[in-house]
Specification:
The protein has 144 residues and is an alpha+beta fold. Helix content is 17%, strand content 54%. Strands 1-2-3-4-5-6-7-8 form an eight-stranded antiparallel barrel. A hairpin with a 2-residue loop joins β2 and β3.
């Protein structure tokens, strides 16, 4: 009976350990401030600012964003301004919603985390569907 209990305990500990370390992106992912830039569909940099991320739990985070237009014709874009964000992390993939709570006015960022950088695609979904998009990059900013 003791052997059975030891074997069961070993399996349980092993299962718990593997579930907490099965998210390699999380192990190296850093909460904090990221310098953010986004390009239009022709890959011209049109936006820049910061994104601040903090974890709610191992797979969900929240934070703030502050983005300004680099070109005057982007000054009124829904991607500019400041606000709250929510997101999810699975392995090294992130999904971020810059306009949580909106149904027809969303900016989504979908990217891969590696070496302190998030690189991916952004898209604007309006009441008409997919309206705009391009590439983005967010790089961890060490304040020290």
């Amino acid at each position: 009976m003791k052997l059975y209990l030891i074997l069961f305990s070993s399996i349980l500990i092993s299962a718990c350990h593997s579930s907490t370390t099965s998210n390699p992106g999380l192990e190296e992912f850093q909460a904090g401030i990221y310098q953010y830039s986004a390009c239009d569909s022709t890959d011209v940099k049109v936006l820049e600012g910061t994104i601040q991320l903090e974890f709610d739990d191992p797979m969900h985070f929240k934070g703030h964003w502050n983005v300004k237009a680099k070109k005057s014709d982007w000054a009124d874009h829904p991607h500019t301004g400041a606000g709250h964000l929510i997101g999810t992390l699975k392995d090294d993939s992130l999904s971020i919603n810059l306009h949580p709570g909106w149904v027809d006015h969303n900016i989504f960022l979908n990217g891969i985390y590696h070496d302190g950088k998030i690189i991916g695609k952004w898209m604007y979904l309006s009441y008409m569907g997919w309206t705009d998009g391009g590439n983005f990059k967010a790089e961890y900013y060490d304040e020290d």
